[in-house]
Amino acid sequence: MGVVLMGKSILGRRLKELREKHKLTQKQVAPKFGITNYQLSRYENDESNPDPDLIVKFAEFYGVSSDYLLGKTDKPTYDEDLSRSYYGGPEDITDDEREYLDRQLEQYRELKKQFMEKKEENK
Fold it and tell me: What is the pTM of this model?
């Protein structure tokens, strides 16, 4: 199985936590990846592991790194990615700016989620 922490894979736990954080059900998420909610449940409960391509898709969907999903890091995203976006790197970003960027990112993710839901409805 995947990376294990206290008897349950980090991957399964994080997939479930992220889905719940986004207030989504397994029935809502599974079709977005071409899998059944039963298979998603098996991933979340550490009964099966998704293939590497699916892990990347989960990471992109939830806006986290695949390293985070796999338990290689506890940071959901890479600071290096943030440094590419701003002159001077992340160490030059004030707490106010980081809070603002976090709010903007959360708004973007919500809009993206709504867009994806509407896209699914129109199929």
Answer: 0.59
54 strand-pairing partners? none
pLDDT in tens, 48-88: 999 999 999 999 899 898 888 998 888 887 654 454 454 45
* DSSP code for 36: -
Match 């992220």 to its residue by tokens: 18
Cross-strand partners of 5: 8
* Dihedral pair phi/psi, residue 48, rounded to 5°: -160, 160
- For residues 29, 33, 35, 38, the Cα torsion angle rounded to the nearest 10 degrees is -30
Task: Please write down the long-range contacts of 106-114, taking CB distance under 8 Å and 24 or more positions apart.
Answer: 109/22, 109/63, 113/22, 113/24
